[in-house]
Specification:
It contains six helices and 13 strands. It is α/β, with parallel strands linked by helices and 245 residues long. The strands form three sheets. It has a seven-stranded mixed β-sheet with strand order 3-2-1-4-5-13-10, with helices on both faces. Helix 1 packs across helix 4.
Amino acid sequence: MLYRPDLARIHDSRFGEIARSAAPVLLKALERAGLDRGLVIDLGCGSGIAAELFASAGYDVLGIDVSRSMLRLARRRVPGATFRLGSLAEVELPTAVAVAGIGESFNYFVGRPISERALARLFRRIHRALVPGGVLLFDMAAPGRARGPGRVKSHFEAEEWAILVTVEEERLRGILTRRITTFRKAGSRYRKTEEVHRQKLFGRAVVMELLRQAGFRARSLPGYGDLPFPRGLAGYLGSRTTSGR
């Protein structure tokens, strides 16, 4: 299971910057498209940080995530939005003015890695759900995300928690593995939990071609607003302009 209670709370308190930076980019794209109302679908919505900004701008919001713990946080943060538990590859997508996939949500997999064919199907499903001129904003991990060969370790800490992360990238298979250990204060002690997250990495050229084939006019982004992407992370902004395939 991804993002159990302790990691969900830590992620919400410490790693929400990308969602806060991405939401205004999507809202500006909707403004340029003349879409000032309608449904925004937040795929991999996490704890609802971006969803709150979409709702505050006057849009209806549907958030979808595989983590029950994240969804509990999201429902408390944005009580007026709708949140559903589900896989991005299977959940029904209603008609929407925009779809967001913030925080590498399209890379994650449980069991078998997501394939190019499966990613292409996801893009086609999103294209069908969007109204003409509708907006797609997302970011994806790409080869080089590990920032170095072998196992790359990092840690973060606050007054009531600490998190240790070991990242390893299988270059030939294009698989990134994050082994995450959290320590969160529970009474007078700290509770330890461990999770393993796996992602399939996709290069920018592949993603752009799949978007084109799905019927999107798209461009890559160097970051969200004033927040630049680190090495191995790429953003994409697209709009529905054709019928797709």
